[in-house]
């Protein structure tokens, strides 16, 4: 701004032309993303609401029948829907605390002064780059009742090992375990970075004060890592609420719908039963739940950073 | 998709074979090319998109047919697109709503009704005498509201497959498989007592229970659905007794493990750990690869089969009405369904074309001796039960498969379970 | 790290032993599924169907790899996945950096509202949207086209969010100086902002690439024909053929996992950075 170059000074004057050009450039630069965003994210969001009010005719949308809240009423009365809600909740409860907790434990462990940090990090993080179908196929083989390794070793120590993916009790925990193997690495590396960002001086000061390891963890580690923990918890909640591939491939919702989660039910209603209107209503329910969950999570756990 | 539970319709896709005896078949390839109307190539070549759900032995056999068609035709070329079995009808549905439908597609007979609105009636486009070219009973399976909407390719019923080596090991006569419930009971009990093998499983995939359930329900004099397919009829005494049978197999008599993890039974049968199971025509190709000796018999082994029946289904070829190459697609469909020798000799199905069914090539083949003669016998005796056609067959397949799966694995009371399934099916059909 | 902890090299404390046992024990358990995949893919049918697991197959065969490569258009799927993941990554980096530049460094009316709307939709799950989105894609005639996956995944706002965090830290004086030198807005974006933002761009690229590469449900819905599948969808569809051959199943799994896994081993530091960046800016 110190320069005396007249041309530049002129262009800096708050004239109408200059303002227009910055506005024009600003809009032009924003436009490509806004276009994609509008057409493929916002518009479907609105159209979903619209569709959910119709008995939607997939072959011939113009013949769809307006039914107001009928799809939502049906949803509330649909036992399969509520079974899907329960299955989803169970999956969330089984996975989210474990994924965050185990991620934290591994991160704290690897951040200690030990040999082979890089190796450990590679191992814990590596499953994250696999696709869900790979993970599901491997674990389905591992769980196989008669020819799988898990039940072979269990069979050596117990007489009747569970039929993992076929059991009311164990199917969901089995899917959850495979999921934990798959994605705990994501939380692990984020929490590791957060732990390494905590200043060692804080710990030293605590040590001089004679604080126990537990106190140091509670008073230094947790508060210092809070924003990272909130972040992985939120990401994990959203991911777990939308679980699909694992159950789709490993159990297809069985036995008897006990692992049929919301997104799976949504897929079935839409593309197997061809009821787009009802499926859109279920999608909206999922949307509202997820927004509520992330808001609550940020409000309660997160504070405002 | 490997691990799915819906028993929509049967599949020969559940096979994994490198085609046995392909050499013997290749020699026949040249001699069956007399399809009628060869349209002159005025506008060059029409390429039609053809969707199938065949893999394994069926996939190979269909490839053989299509390759032969393409070799013998200049004006029409078929492009085969293989689709995943479990998602096949979902994908077909989405492609039709999206206006991106194939020109020609395979349909299982009971699935046609769901798609009739989107299929072309074939009437005017068929060549003369087409109706007479097919086995009459199968021809009628492809007629809806007076319109012919598909051409039948085959019939594929269920049979009882058994491992002769295990029979011998148990001291049973490997040439006399059980023909009724009492004989099944004595054979299975003997195998359970004398060997460490599993004796019997009514569905090796452990997820398509509904197929043979319907047949056995008919066989004991019961009905599966009411006459106009609006209500379940299997919650009666017959159905409950049958459910009890499924329960007892794994939980009372220890003929099998009480575990319905997908495909466990077929793994066991193929690795020689299971003595008897019930499966479709396509198992011929799979078992040709195994190194034990096996046989096949009629599967009338449930209790009280006074009017024995076995499950059957048909692959048919339909022409979606959004396509622009309908004439060509119909011609291709006629040719494939009427030149289907390999569909019998390689894939093991009963061809629907009368001339192929009667041909010496088929009758003198190994598959005829091993399995097809028995299947053909059951077809002649009217012992085949097709699954009912409804708006969406998942409405009844899913509740029944779910219930029997739980009953079989000992997680559900047979009577309560089957009656609950019946009431669910009724709700679905009326909902 | 204090000095005495470095000079202490006598007997490890039991606590340290416990730490090693726990971490390396966990690492071993993490590796087991890989071992099972590799060893099963090399087993002959007899050993694959054996009830006793052979971790080192007594007899090694490559027949499953051969069967799988011949039986399914795996190369085609690999190319499709590469095209979809690559194109999405390029589009995301370009349009996200453009709008982030506009939102942080340019002044125009309404940009606050635009920014708020984008950030608010941060949490919109694409799966909750799948039915309306499907009808839109279908109306555009995009079913079965790679664009059916590329476009919706380019709309996800996470990159906008990440870039705005980074661009904020870019001093305004740099931009002012460039303006004084007569740079147009586009030149500033191309020659000043992008080069300075390389680490953020690298991070977002890697993350987007891996994320898109691994998508399953959406490609399953919109990609119809066998020849247009991606690897994650394709390998599941081959299973009915091979389902009774654990060897073939594990071979196809390994083939599908290999490309990205190798990339991961090479670019590990960057990928870890990419993921960590989200956690620390988010």
What does this 3D model show about the protein?
Chain C: Belongs to the binding-protein-dependent transport system permease family. Chain C: InterPro entries: MetI-like, MetI-like_sf. Chain C: It is found in: Cell membrane. Chain A is mostly helical and 305 residues long. Chain A has helices at 6-12, 16-51, 70-77, 79-110, 117-125, 132-143, 149-157, 171-196, 200-208, 213-224, 226-241, 245-250, 262-272, 276-302; strands at residues 54-55, 65-66. Chain A has a single domain (81-302), classed as MetI-like fold. In chain A, helix 3 (70-77) crosses helix 14 (276-302), helix 4 packs parallel to helix 8 (171-196) and helix 11 (226-241) runs antiparallel to helix 14 (276-302). Chain A is globular. The two termini of chain A are 34 Å apart. In chain B, helix 9 crosses helix 18 (414-430) and helix 17 (394-408) packs antiparallel against helix 18. Mean pLDDT of chain B is 86; it is low at 1-42. Chain C is mainly α and 282 residues long. Chain C folds into two domains: 11-61, no CATH class; 72-234 and 263-281, MetI-like (MetI-like fold), CATH 1.10.3720. Helices cover 73% and strands 0% of the residues of chain C. Chain C has 17 helices and no strands. Chain C starts with a helix and ends with a helix. The interface between A and C is large, with 104 and 100 residues.
Topology:
The complex is a heterotrimer of chains A (305), B (431) and C (282).
Chain A: H1 6-12, H2 16-51, E1 54-55, E2 65-66, H3 70-77, H4 79-110, H5 117-125, H6 132-143, H7 149-157, H8 171-196, H9 200-208, H10 213-224, H11 226-241, H12 245-250, H13 262-272, H14 276-302
Antiparallel strand pairs in A: 1-2
Chain B: H1 22-26, E1 46-52, H2 56-72, E2 76-82, H3 88-97, E3 104-108, H4 112-115, H5 136-141, E4 143-144, E5 147-148, E6 150-152, E7 154-163, H6 164-169, H7 181-194, E8 198-201, H8 209-219, H9 237-251, H10 264-270, E9 274-280, H11 283-287, E10 294-297, E11 310-313, E12 315-318, H12 326-338, H13 341-345, E13 350-351, H14 354-358, H15 360-363, H16 366-380, E14 384-386, H17 394-408, H18 414-430
Parallel strand pairs in B: 1-2, 1-3, 8-9, 11-14
Antiparallel strand pairs in B: 3-12, 4-5, 6-12, 7-9, 7-10, 7-11, 7-13
Helix pairs in contact in B: 9-18, 17-18
Chain C: H1 3-7, H2 14-41, H3 45-48, H4 63-71, H5 74-105, H6 111-120, H7 130-139, H8 147-154, H9 158-168, H10 172-180, H11 185-196, H12 198-213, H13 217-222, H14 231-237, H15 239-242, H16 246-266, H17 268-281
Helix pairs in contact in C: 2-16, 4-16, 5-8, 5-9, 5-12, 10-11, 12-17
């Amino acid at each position: 701004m110190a320069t005396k170059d007249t041309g530049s000074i002129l262009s800096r004057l708050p004239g109408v032309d200059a303002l227009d050009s910055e506005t024009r450039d600003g809009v032009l630069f924003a436009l490509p993303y806004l276009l994609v965003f509008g057409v493929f994210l916002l518009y479907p969001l609105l159209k979903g609401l619209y569709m959910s009010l119709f008995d939607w005719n997939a072959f011939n949308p113009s013949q769809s029948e307006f039914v107001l809240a009928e799809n939502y009423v049906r949803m509330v009365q649909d036992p399969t829907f509520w079974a899907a809600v329960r299955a989803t909740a169970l999956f969330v409860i089984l996975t989210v605390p474990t994924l965050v907790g185990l991620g934290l434990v591994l991160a704290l462990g690897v951040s200690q002064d030990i040999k082979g940090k890089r190796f450990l990090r590679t191992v814990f993080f590596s499953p994250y780059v696999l696709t869900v179908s790979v993970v599901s196929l491997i674990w389905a083989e591992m769980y196989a009742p008669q020819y799988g390794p898990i039940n072979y070793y269990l069979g050596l120590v117990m007489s009747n090992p569970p039929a993992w993916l076929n059991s009311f009790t164990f199917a969901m925990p089995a899917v959850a375990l495979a999921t934990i193997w798959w994605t705990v690495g994501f939380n692990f590396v984020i929490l590791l970075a957060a732990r390494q960002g905590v200043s060692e001086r804080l710990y030293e000061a605590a040590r001089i004060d004679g604080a126990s390891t537990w106190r140091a963890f509670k008073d230094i580690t947790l508060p210092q890592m809070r924003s990272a923990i909130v972040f992985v918890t939120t990401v994990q909640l959203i991911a777990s609420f939308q679980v699909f591939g694992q159950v789709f491939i490993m159990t297809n919702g069985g036995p008897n719908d006990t692992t049929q989660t919301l997104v799976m039910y949504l897929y079935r209603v839409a593309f197997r039963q061809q009821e787009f209107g009802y499926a859109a209503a279920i999608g909206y329910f999922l949307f509202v739940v997820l927004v509520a969950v992330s808001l609550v999570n940020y409000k309660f756990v997160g504070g405002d950073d | 998709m490997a691990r799915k539970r819906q028993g929509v319709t049967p599949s020969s896709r559940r096979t994994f074979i490198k085609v046995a005896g392909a050499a013997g078949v290749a020699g026949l390839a040249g001699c069956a090319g007399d399809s009628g109307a060869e349209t002159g190539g005025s506008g060059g070549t029409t390429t039609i998109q053809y969707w199938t759900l065949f893999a394994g032995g069926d996939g190979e056999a269909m490839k053989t047919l299509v390759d032969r068609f393409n070799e013998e035709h200049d004006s029409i070329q078929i492009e085969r697109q293989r689709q995943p079995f479990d998602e096949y009808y979902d994908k077909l549905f989405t492609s039709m709503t999206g206006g991106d439908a194939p020109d020609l597609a395979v349909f299982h007979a009971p699935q046609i009704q769901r798609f009739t609105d989107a299929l072309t009636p074939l009437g005017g486009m068929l060549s003369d005498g087409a109706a007479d070219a097919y086995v009459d009973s199968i021809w009628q399976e492809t007629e809806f509201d007076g319109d012919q909407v598909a051409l039948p390719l085959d019939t594929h019923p269920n049979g009882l497959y058994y491992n002769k080596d295990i029979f011998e090991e148990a001291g049973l006569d490997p040439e006399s498989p059980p023909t009724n419930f009492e004989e099944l009971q004595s054979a299975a009990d003997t195998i359970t007592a004398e060997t460490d093998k599993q004796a019997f499983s009514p569905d090796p995939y452990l997820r398509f229970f509904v197929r043979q359930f319907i047949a056995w329900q008919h066989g004991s004099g019961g009905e599966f659905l009411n006459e106009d397919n609006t209500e379940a009829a299997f919650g009666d005494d017959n159905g409950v007794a049958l459910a009890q049978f499924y329960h007892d197999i794994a939980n009372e008599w220890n003929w099998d493990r009480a575990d319905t993890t997908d495909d466990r039974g077929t793994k066991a049968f193929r690795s020689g750990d299971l003595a008897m199971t019930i499966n479709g025509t396509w198992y011929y190709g799979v078992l040709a690869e195994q190194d034990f000796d096996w046989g096949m018999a009629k599967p009338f082994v449930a209790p009280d089969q006074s009017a024995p029946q076995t499950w059957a289904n048909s692959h048919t070829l339909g022409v979606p009405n959004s396509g622009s190459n309908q004439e060509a697609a119909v011609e291709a469909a006629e040719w494939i369904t009427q030149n289907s020798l390999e569909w019998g000799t390689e894939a093991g199905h009963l061809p629907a074309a009368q001339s192929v069914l009667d041909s010496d090539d088929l009758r003198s083949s190994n598959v005829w001796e091993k399995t097809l003669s028995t299947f053909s016998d059951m077809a002649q005796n009217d012992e085949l039960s097709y699954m009912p056609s409804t708006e969406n067959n998942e409405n009844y397949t899913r509740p029944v498969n779910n219930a029997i799966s739980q009953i079989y694995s000992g997680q559900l009371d047979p009577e309560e379970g089957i009656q609950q399934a019946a009431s669910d099916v009724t709700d679905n059909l009326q909902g | 790290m204090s000095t005495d902890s470095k000079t202490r090299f006598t007997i490890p404390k039991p606590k340290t032993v416990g730490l090693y046992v726990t971490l390396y024990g966990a690492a071993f358990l993490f590796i087991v599924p890989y071992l099972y995949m590799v060893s099963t893919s090399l087993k002959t049918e007899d050993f694959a169907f054996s009830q006793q697991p052979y971790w080192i197959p007594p007899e090694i065969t490559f027949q499953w790899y051969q069967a799988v490569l011949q039986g399914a258009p795996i190369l085609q799927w690999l190319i499709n996945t590469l095209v979809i993941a690559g194109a999405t990554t390029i589009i995301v980096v370009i349009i996200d950096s453009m709008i982030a530049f506009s939102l942080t460094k340019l002044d125009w009316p309404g940009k606050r509202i635009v920014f708020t709307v984008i950030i608010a939709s941060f949490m919109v799950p694409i799966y909750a949207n799948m039915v309306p989105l499907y009808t839109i894609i279908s109306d555009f005639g995009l079913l079965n086209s790679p664009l059916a996956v590329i476009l919706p995944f380019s709309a996800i706002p996470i990159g906008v969010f990440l870039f705005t965090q980074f661009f904020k830290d870019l001093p305004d004086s740099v931009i002012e100086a460039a303006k004084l030198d007569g740079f147009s807005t586009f030149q500033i974006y191309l020659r000043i902002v992008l080069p300075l933002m390389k680490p953020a761009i690298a991070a977002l690229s890697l993350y987007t690439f891996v994320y898109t590469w691994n998508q399953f449900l959406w490609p399953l819905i919109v990609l119809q024909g066998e020849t247009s599948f991606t690897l994650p969808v394709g390998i599941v569809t081959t299973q009915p053929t091979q389902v009774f051959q654990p060897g073939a199943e594990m071979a196809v799994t390994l083939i599908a996992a290999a490309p990205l896994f190798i990339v991961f081993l090479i670019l590990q530091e960057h990928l870890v950075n990419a993921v960590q960046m989200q956690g620390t800016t988010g």
